[in-house]
Amino acid sequence: MSNEIFMLKANQLVVGILLFLSSLFSCQQQKEDFKSMNVDEFDAYIQDENVQRLDVRTLAEYSEGHIAKTININVLDDSFATMADSLLQKDKPVALYCRSGKRSKKAAKILSKKGYKVFDLHKGFNAWRDAGKNIEQ
């Protein structure tokens, strides 16, 4: 009888250890694999011709003014990821922004999970404009 109790306790211990280990791996938070930059850092960074510039706002917002040499892909569009894959190169970094910084964080997460090296303009186009940086119409 004591041998059966020992085996039951051993089985419970093994199951407990396996559950613990599986929870460690399955519940890990996804690390945000992109860097947010302030306006001056972002401005200096995009001077590199190898950096792809991406505006993730709506077309209407983009047409009212944007950072020069940017392409526009609306992150709220269902085809955002597909369009990004067709227009961007994974071997070159992507510097992106939206109006205030919220949508660009969403876009940065999507793109970084797909293997892009992403840099986000903290506080977005509003901060860029408020800092008196150049805007293209």
From TrEMBL:
Q: Which Pfam families match?
A: Rhodanese (PF00581)
Against InterPro entries, the record matches this protein to: GlpE_sulfurtransferase (IPR050229), Rhodanese-like_dom (IPR001763), Rhodanese-like_dom_sf (IPR036873)
- Domain (Rhodanese): give its ranges: 47-137
Name the chain's protein: Rhodanese
Q: Which lineage?
A: Bacteria, Pseudomonadati, Bacteroidota, Bacteroidia, Bacteroidales
